[in-house]
Amino acid sequence: PTEKQFLVKGLKQFLYLIKYIIFLIKARDAFESCPPDLVVVCYCFSDAQPTDAEREVWEQVDTVLKDAKGILDELQAYKGAGQEIREAIQNPNDEALQEQAWAAVGPLVGKLKKFYEFSQRLEAALHSLLGALTSETYDDPTQHLEREQALAKQFAEILHFTLRFDELKMTNPAIQNDFSYYRRTLSRMRINNVPAEAENEVNNELANRISLFYADATPMLKTLSDGTTKFVSENKNLPIENTTDVLSTMASICKVMLETPEYRSRFSSEETVSFCLRVMVGVIILYDYVHPVGAFAKSSKIDMKGCIKVLKDQPPNSVEGLLNALRYTTKHLNDESTNKTIKSMLQ
């Protein structure tokens, strides 16, 4: 099976278990006397198609998510122009090598611009989803996740994409090297009044924004974190708990799925496990940015010790990037109020 087929299957299992766990939360007492097979039959996964009420937002987000796989493929295949740049720098008077490096960097900058522009589309999609999932249509986040499963699925897909994009970016230093060379060369050409066709592709103002984007260790996650903070600040009439409760509920669901053998045994591949881990870390970081005291405080609705333990129980090589995301991209980890045990767990 292809990676895409694994991801689709993983999403189906993820949403199936969301439904299953929500049912357990709502009917815990009754469940103890209910045959497990009956629960599975009654709450088996359906394909989470959007309802009429969800459709407008779902279609807006779907147009963005359709391009997400292609973005990851392009990023994974990104090789950079390291050799051409090194030769040009080592031989500053060789015009042929300067031209070769410039010709090699130009198309790559076009790709980096495309990734940056996609981050803006992703932020807009996130705003649409948060608007739907935190509205006062339902009384609590559990009802939102249960009754708006198609949107919950899209939210999970966005988080999975975001963490995967940042994992690939962090392991590819060519991205910043290429863009830095492009900016230096463009500046030198401007000083020398040399026309630069590539400037029509990425002018100086846009180059500044793109440079700031890639300067961050986890640029997509920062985009979503800033976007979530902006959403909360622009919707002051909406109780902040509407947003934080949806995030903490999703984190709890992921944690339970990953730490409970009964639920985890339903995963057919490690890609499904990775999907759930990325979603869990993604919602924790968003929660930490928008909640007044963050995810690590004693009053947080997220069991941070439990979530970190779940991460540490995985093979180290598979989660180091996610642990680093918690270490270096959260807002409140180093607050004085953060439990010392949590800090030591992330050291």
UniProtKB/TrEMBL annotation:
- Where does the CYRIA/CYRIB Rac1 binding domain start and stop, copy by copy? 44-343
Q: Which domain of life is it from?
A: Eukaryota
Q: Which UniProt keywords apply?
A: Lipoprotein, Membrane
Against InterPro entries, the record matches this protein to: CYRI, CYRIA/CYRIB_Rac1-bd
Which GO terms of type biological process are on file? Answer: regulation of actin filament polymerization
A single GO molecular-function term is:
small GTPase binding
* Compartments, record wording: Membrane
Q: Name one Pfam family in it.
A: CYRIA-B_Rac1-bd
> What do the Gene Ontology cellular component annotations say?
membrane
> Key word tRNA-binding present in the record?
no
Does the record's keyword annotation contain Membrane?
yes
Stated membrane topology is: Lipid-anchor
UniProt lists the family membership as follows: Belongs to the CYRI family.
PANTHER family to which the protein is assigned, alphabetical: GH09096P (PTHR12422)
- The protein depicted here goes by the name Family with sequence similarity 49 member Bb
